[in-house]
Amino acid sequence: MYRHSSHSNTCRHKPLTSLRMILKHVFAIQSTLLDIPFRLWTPFTAGKESRLKWRIARTLLLVYWIWCFIILIFMALKAGESVLFEPHGSKISPIVRVLAGIPNFFLTLRGNLVLLILAVRKDTMAELLQNMECLVYKFVPGNSSRSKTRKWLALNSGLTLYCLTMFAAIQILSWTHGLEFEKYTLNSYYSLNPLPFIIPVWVFITFQVCFMYCPYFLSQVLLSGTIVMGSIMDDCSRILNKKLKSLDERFRGLVECSKATGKQWVIGLDEMDSLAGEVELLIADRAALFQFNEKLNSYFGWLLFVSYVSDVCASAGMLAVLVADAEPSHYQFAAKLLGAIGFLSFATALYIPLALSTESASKTASYVYIATNTAYPLFGKNYSIRLREVLNDLRSMSTTFPIDFLASGFFHIERRFIVTTITLLASFGILLVEFLGNEESIKGRPATIDLSSILNVTGLGSAIFKNPQNDTTIKLVPHKHE
């Protein structure tokens, strides 16, 4: 095990007020959207605010969560009805009906879970933010802190804006497609099957926005904040790797000087102790990074798991809807394609910054190994015991305590994980197409090929294809055995 030096407590010092304000500005989106009106980001501070305001916020959260839970139960009943009772005249496969009901259910479930867990674990957030401030204060130099914070703010804003615009576009196209297919208007009445209630369509859409999509978007906002914290860890790991590179270059220079002069050691014991002190500082930095990673996994591991599972399930549902040829409308292809692309990006591309952070942290062990091997020829009879021991401690620490992002212990967020997810979803789409094709052939349904739609002709050709007396539609009817 490594030893703590007097410098290992640096991260416990109170960061500068200006740095705290800058980081507060970076996470202004999370603090604004999650605090108004439920206080899900900033914890209650005794002695600095009224407990009445806190209780009002908790009461509003409870009422809101109850409504969200009611909508979740309704979505479960709606999905069950679509599976158990096939609509009259429906040509949609039961598998497709099951998968098509998955996205909305899992989005609602994810929003409910995030609201509930945030309300329960509000005290841990303050500790995590304080540790993040200490980490930035420890790693990022003062002259580059503003450029780094601008980068983190841009990443946070970009992720949040992408999630909002993509999700809003998916839902707007979905509503437009559904209204045209069902021949509804906003003032039409919608039956809440299997419940015996009828409400206007615009009221149903309003309920969806308030109690299904808003909690999901808040969970995406929280996930964006988690990704930004992972990006902060990535920058800290890169800074640590640069220090290790610099240390390796110093060792390499000493080795070359030793070979040139024929002496085994070319510096004094004071400089050797100075090098050992630098290595101890690197140990303290690596320990601070690992401790913050542990706290981040402890607090946000469940969020990574819930977000990933819900987005993968939603992607599978959208792929099923995409390959199924049903519910025709002018907006059918655009709504299905955008929905599949959007949720696929939520399940894969959104986690790329976390995978990059894991790779940067894993490179630290390689740099430590290289620096240790470079310095090894310098250890002779007059070696510094302290330098060799701290180098061994740093090497052992980098391999024994890896830095990665765990989704509640179920999986690690890394490059192979993202590639595997893309491969599995692509394979699922291909298998689904094959399954639906086999199912149609088993049922013996005639497959119709309309030459006019394939050739997309106009003028005389279009008139010929649409002429009932010149019916060129080819029907493929399965052969019946005697």
Describe it:
The protein has 482 residues and is mostly helical. Helix content is 72%, strand content 2%. It is built from 15 helices and four strands. The chain has helices at residues 17-26, 28-35, 51-84, 94-100, 102-120, 122-139, 145-182, 201-261, 269-323, 332-347, 352-375, 385-400, 415-443, 451-455, 459-466; strands at residues 189-191, 198-200, 447-449, 474-476. It has a two-stranded antiparallel sheet. A hairpin with a 6-residue loop joins strand 1 and strand 2. It is elongated, with a radius of gyration of 30 Å.
As a percent range, the share of strand residues is under 5%
Structural class: mainly alpha
- Arithmetic mean pLDDT: 77
Contiguous low-pLDDT stretches (5 residues minimum) are 1-10, 444-482
Termini separation: 81 Å
* Shape, per Cα inertia axes: elongated
Side by side, the strands of the main sheet go 1-2
> Describe the biggest sheet?
2 strands, antiparallel
The helix fraction, in percent, is over 70%
What is the helix/strand order?
HHHHHHHEEHHHHHHEHHE
Q: In DSSP terms, counting alpha (H) and pi (I) runs of 4 or more, how many helices?
A: 15
Report the C-alpha radius of gyration, rounded.
30 Å
Number of strands: 4
Spell out the key features of this protein.
482 residues, mainly alpha, two-stranded antiparallel ribbon, disordered N terminus
